[in-house]
Amino acid sequence: MPFRAREAVLWRDPDFRRLWLGQSASQVGAQAGLVTLPLVAMLVLGADAWELGLLRAVEQLPILLFSLLAGALVDRGRARDIMVLTDAGRALALAVVPVVLVLGLPALLVVGFLVGALGVFFDVAYQAALVRIVPGERLTRANSALEGSRSAAQIGGPALGGTLVSVFSAPFAAVAGAFFFAVSFLAIRRMREVEPASGGRGGIWAGVRLVAGHRVLRAVGIASALFQFALAAVMTVYLVFLTQVLRLPGAGVGVALAMVGPGALAGSLVAARLPGRFGYGAVLVGSAFLADGVLLVVPALSGPPGAILPVLMAVNFVFGLFGQIVDVSTMAVRQAVTPLHLQGRVVATINLAGMGLTPVGSLAGGLLAGAWGPRTGLLLAASALALSPVFMALSPLARLRLGWERAD
Fold it and tell me: CA angle, 313 as apex, 311 and 314 as ends, to 5°?
């Protein structure tokens, strides 16, 4: 069947359209929250660098606590029901932000924890649902559509959050996130029931055993853990540096961070072609070095916001471009070597490996900013990003080429 015909068949599937719409709205809400909740903490509650790091750590802690449970539940149950419940919970949690602020930072920490916990279950569920409702011959195109919506959310979400904070108020901006999760709830609840692929045999630890025993999946997990740990530290100091040292307004912060989205969109367009020409190993290692290295430019910046903002936008575009190439390539590796009945648990295990250390990284970022100042702290955190591509260069990932097949 010609490519355009396959694409048309995909978009005629009402379940895929509902999943795509729900996932897109959810991504916008989640991306906006990356900006709005920290700005609520800083602008309304007067949070310092340590408290901002604590908030980010609390938001990310559920990845460590619930990833394996989410994978097991998704492999054994209906992904649609899990997505619907988590959307409803996140919408409710954000809707009450203006009320809970009277209780101070502890109440905002509770909201951040709940939103993060529900997000863990949603992210595993939508990836498993896609495999269940889309036939294998159309799965690549479906993945591209979801990656495109994620990139668009990276463009619009932070900019929307920062703009709402500047125009209205930080609490109102947080409540706006509830609207997007409500849209996702309404779309996904109309999907048909998505049954598990094989009853989830093997138990909660089956994904861990596969990842730990497979040299390629194990390398992906370790490289992801190193990257996400350092990135969590970077992003904690990054927000402090942009607002307190460079004196960017909320809208400027949102626009700068949003440029990751166009870069990621450009990266998704070229990511499928590069491995066939250069091999997955060269693409993974080279792209990781370029994506992580460009952030070393940021600590050197100084001057008026109008002069700095274009440089920040260019840096974030390059980071998004090469970071997306790494993401798409590692996703292809994971899907190719993972049995269908373990997709949910392997996704959860890789998420746990990649994101489980982010609470520690966020705390480390807050400590670095407090002890050394935002500029030096950001330089140290950005330098730590080199750990991931160095590990990849020394691992089996550097020697990957085309030709593997998915295990069944």
Answer: 65
